[in-house]
Amino acid sequence: MKLLQQELSSKILAGSLQLYGDHMAGEYQGFYLMMEPGNGQYIITVAAHLPEAENNDSVKEFLRDLQREKEQITGYQTEKYMVKLSVQIEKKEKDIPAVVNSAVEPLMAYLSVNHYISGCRSCGKPVTLANRHKVSDGYCFLCSECASARVPEADLQGSGQNTFFTEISQEKSSAAPGFVGALFGSLVGGVLWALFFKLGIIAGLAGAVAAICAAWGYKKLGKCMDRKGMVITLLVTAFTIYLANRIAWSWEIYELMQENGFGFMDIFAELDDFLAFSGSWQYYRTLLVGYVLTVLCMFRTKRR
Fold first, then answer.
1. CB-count burial class (<10 Å; 0-12, 13-18, 19+) for 129
2. Fewer CB within 10 Å: C terminus or N terminus of the chain?
3. How many CB atoms neighbour CB 199 within 10 A?
4. Is the dihedral angle over the CA atoms 186, 191, 194, 195 positive or is it negative?
5. Which residue has the higher pLDDT, 110 or 284?
């Protein structure tokens, strides 16, 4: 793994990065930056700000446009003295340096042309490559004074995984198309729910699938996944699980009662009355298992 990381660092950004344990760092086009691998993506931190500017809003607008152009950029964050973005690496990707370079080099060119400079994340004072520090949200550059004022999370050579970027983007998503994407995505889990129920498999497992597919669908059509998207995805998934469970149980009872003249829609509409005779606790237990597995799945995804 170390040899692989060394080979990657020699090809990323013209070989300007050096490997330091669990991250890479270096100077490129006059800017200090660091790169951390984790969970199928690279987190790139660049010490960059405009002298005497109150914020980094201008580069935020550039990153918003760049993210729309480059699908591999899954999130970004700007602070007054720092820029951060995540680059997704597909499992079958053979040329990782090319993917990273295509996302990062336009940013570096923008910073250089617009006369940004590198500095401490907290105060903007000049830093060097040695001023690398790991804090709660990953690595950053801090001058000696600012570093001594905070408690580092781990040693520079530590091996912890970065959790700053997950699926949550700083960009605002498009709620309406995202909702449609989440709905169609969750239907995959809904179909699996009914199929698993029919086969006697724990149908609740399909709840996790519904959550994953709903999140994928929202992100695909909503352009990104923000906190609003998470809420919409959770609500859509909860409704889909409820509907799929009701359909599955209604069909099960329908197959038993159709000879008595009951139609499927009759049973679906009056399901609670039919369940009163067959044991409603099993119905609600199945639904509860699905919700629990779904929440655990989404919590794990967020933790990652």
1. middle
2. N
3. 8
4. negative
5. 110
Give dist(CA 49, CA 55) in Å, integer. 8
Determine the Cα angle at 107 with ends 12 and 39, to 5°: 55
Residue 91, phi then psi, degrees to nearest 5: -60, -35
The CA distance from 199 to 43, in Å, is: 43
CB atoms within 10 A of CB 113: 8
Question: Given CA atoms 32, 37, 38, 43 in this order, what sign does their dihedral have?
Answer: positive
Report the C-alpha gap between 72 and 250 in whole angstroms. Answer: 43
Residue from 111, 39, 41, 40 nearest 82 by CA: 111
Rg (CA), the chain: 25
φ and ψ at 17, to 5 degrees? -100, 145
Is-contact 64 58, C-beta < 8 A?
no
Query: How many angstroms separate the CA atoms of 83 and 121, rounded?
Result: 9
- What domains are there in the chain, each with its CATH number? 2-148 (3.30.1460), 175-303 (no CATH)
Taking only the tens place, the pLDDT of each residue in 139-174 is: 889 998 888 876 444 333 333 333 333 445 555 778
- The proportion of the chain whose per-residue pLDDT surpasses 70, expressed as a percent, equals 83
For residue 257, the SS3 value is helix
- Long-range own/partner contacts, residues 51-58 (CB < 8 A, 24 or more apart): 51/115, 51/117, 53/80, 54/80, 55/80, 56/80, 56/81, 56/82, 56/83, 58/114
* CB distance 177 to 219 below 8 Å: no
Choose among 170, 16, 8: nearest CA to 105.
16
**Entry field: residues in the chain:** 304
Q: pLDDT digits over 92-111, tens only?
A: 667 888 989 999 999 999 99
